[in-house]
Design a protein that fits this description.
heterodimer, A: mainly alpha, B: mainly alpha, MetI-like fold, 3 domains, 2% strand, disordered N terminus
């Protein structure tokens, strides 16, 4: 009986992973298709990649997306870390549940609602204060920070929740001020979580279509906005080529980040062992 | 000292600490911090208030504005709505609240159908997601520890690649001369292509595919914490595995089930990209209606009313999610 259940579970796992990866694989395979009819195989070709390299619109949009994603990730990480710290370490303060709600809601809020409300805010602010003057890179970045900081908060908060507070308490007992404790003890320990949060915020911004469509202005087409307008005209092989390049970059990035973090973790454990051995 | 500190981290925090000390030695810093502290403003308050202010200004206030515009009159021009408050003379303030936009939504069958269809589509997709996600999460949680992280990474990896492109991949798979139909026709199983693209089926598939990681991760966390001796005890007492699952595993992982379902259901209700790319004219969803009201009809008050009505539907699921997550976080401490 037990054997049978584990067979069922294994089948479902295989099915689930196939379901997750077959579409991505099909995108990659058809990007090397010579035929313009994406799904009818017309021989191997790399011509869509060559076309992609000469496409200035795609390059401009990618550069704009990259700049916005970098600014967004940095802003979201700072704000998200502060919020995560407040929620995980400050006990019960007044209006804690409101802050908790404000950081969870953007995670699940349908993007059309967030996008519409941000745009209406920017329009109202422009009427009242004359800022932001028109819409573009600034408004997109502010909107992205607002929804992606929630993800950083969750990552940092859950890391802090599983972290033993005794290290921080020990430092405090030895007379370190709270700010010093944070920079010397807490920050180095939660650094992997903060980095993960930064990468997550970067990706969310890099991918976002709906919120950007609401808050962008003329001449500020990010990569997803450009891709979506191409998609509405139907499938086309150069989108496949672009998709393959993006998947490749993400995979290399994630694997590198994972390896680096694992190495650092190992080195830290080694350091701890040495420190213990040295004290004895 | 240095060795112990190195055990905790790299040397970079030292630079930060030195920088902090240097800033603190400056006169203006002392003056400002004394002034702030005398008003009860400590570092703690600052840490809380910065994200607080940001989210209030850019997340909370916008909803009030959306609400305000949803009760405004439609007007031609820019911005395309009338102000709520006008000054008839120096002393007389006129407040005009127009509930007509909501009445319009309620009376028009198109909007009612879109709401009903969105909730139905999100509900069906959530259940499908749970049916696929639970065995996956269970299998990952029960595999060897050395495998677990790799499998979790594999679940997360698609989430890191562009959502838009992954939905687009399904067009190539589902369309009439797409991957599935080509395969089935070349094998001689079918003579004519099965119409799959631009159907409700394609929308369910797209939602399940896109949101599966959100379902698997909370389920994994819940299943991993499960005490296995409970299942052994049940087996010793003669309980069949299927019964043990429904009596022990399912109730004890309820938190994960609820959290995962809400993380799928709530954004799925307002989904725009998936119905726009994979759905047909029959699969009208509320996110798409809002988009078209805003971008095609340029009717900001109606779009705002659609958004507020959608929020009313979602308040309850969001509240449940909030409670489950609060409990999870509380359990850690």
């Amino acid at each position: 009986m037990n054997q049978k259940r584990s067979f069922f579970v294994l089948t479902m796992m295989a099915f689930g992973f196939a379901f997750l990866y077959i579409p991505i694989l099909s995108l990659i395979v058809y990007s090397f298709n010579a035929s313009r009819l994406v799904t009818v195989w017309g021989g191997f070709s790399t011509k869509w990649y060559v076309a992609l390299m000469h496409n200035e619109a795609v390059k401009d949009a990618a550069w704009l997306s990259f700049r916005i994603a970098t600014m967004n990730a940095t802003g979201a990480t700072v704000l998200g870390t502060l919020a995560g710290l407040a929620l995980a370490r400050f006990g019960r303060f007044r209006s804690r549940s409101l802050l908790a709600g404000l950081t969870t809601a953007p995670l699940v809020m349908p993007e059309v609602i967030t996008g519409l409300s941000m745009l209406l805010l920017f329009v109202a602010m422009e009427q009242l204060f004359g800022w932001p003057d028109g819409r573009g890179i600034t408004t997109i970045t502010i909107a992205h920070i607002t929804f992606s900081m929630a993800y950083v908060t969750v990552v940092v908060q859950s890391r802090l929740a599983t972290l033993d507070e005794s290290l921080e308490e020990a430092a405090m007992d030895l007379g370190a001020r709270p700010a010093k404790v944070f920079f010397l003890i807490t920050l180095p320990i939660i650094m992997p979580a903060i980095l993960a949060g930064w990468l997550l915020a970067f990706t969310l911004s890099w991918d976002d279509l709906v919120i950007t469509s609401f808050v962008n202005g003329p001449g500020s087409s990010t990569l997803p906005v450009l891709i979506f307008s191409k998609m509405r005209l139907g499938v086309s092989p150069d989108i496949n080529a672009l998709a393959t390049v993006l998947v490749l970059i993400v995979t290399v990035g994630i694997v590198t980040a994972g390896l680096l973090m694992a190495r650092q973790q190992k080195r830290r454990e080694l350091d701890v062992q040495q420190a213990i051995a040295g004290n004895q | 000292m240095s060795r112990n500190a190195r055990a905790v981290g790299d040397s970079s925090p030292f630079v930060l600490a030195e920088l902090m000390a240097w800033i603190k030695a400056l006169g203006p810093y002392r003056w400002a911090s004394n002034r702030l502290r005398s008003r009860g403003m400590t570092g703690r308050t600052a840490v809380i208030s910065v994200p607080y202010l940001w989210l209030s200004l850019f997340f909370l206030v916008p909803f009030l504005i959306v609400f305000k515009i949803s009760v405004s009159d439609i007007r031609l021009g820019m911005p395309p709505y009338d102000p709520l408050i006008t000054w008839a003379s120096a002393q007389v303030m006129e407040l005009k609240v127009n509930l007509g936009n909501y009445a319009f939504l309620w009376e028009d069958a198109l909007y009612r159908n879109a709401y009903a269809n969105s909730i139905l589509t999100a509900g069906i997709s959530t259940i499908l997601c749970l049916l696929i996600g639970y065995p996956m999460a269970y299998g990952i949680a029960r595999s060897k520890p050395s495998w677990r992280n790799l499998l979790l990474l594999l679940v997360m990896l698609p989430f890191w690649t562009s959502f838009l492109l992954r939905v687009y991949a399904w067009i190539g798979i589902l369309k009439n001369n797409g991957l599935i139909n080509n395969l089935l026709m070349s094998m001689g199983v079918i003579d004519e292509p099965i119409v799959m693209l631009q159907t409700n089926f394609a929308v369910y598939l797209g939602i399940v595919y896109s949101y599966l990681p959100f379902m698997v991760l909370p389920l994994y966390t819940a299943i991993e914490k499960l005490d296995l001796t409970l299942l052994e005890a049940a087996a010793d007492l003669g309980c069949r595995p299927v019964k043990a699952f429904f009596k022990i595993t399912a109730p004890l992982t309820k938190g994960g089930i609820v959290a995962g379902s809400m993380l799928v259901f709530i954004p799925a209700v307002g989904e725009f990209v998936i119905p726009a790319l994979l759905g047909g004219p029959g699969s009208l969803m509320i996110g798409r209606v809002l988009w078209e009201e805003f971008f095609n009809n340029r009717s900001w008050p109606i779009a705002s009313a659609v958004a507020i009505a959608m929020l009313v539907v979602l308040v309850f699921p969001i509240w449940i999610l909030q409670r489950v997550q609060g409990r999870e976080m509380g359990a850690h401490r």
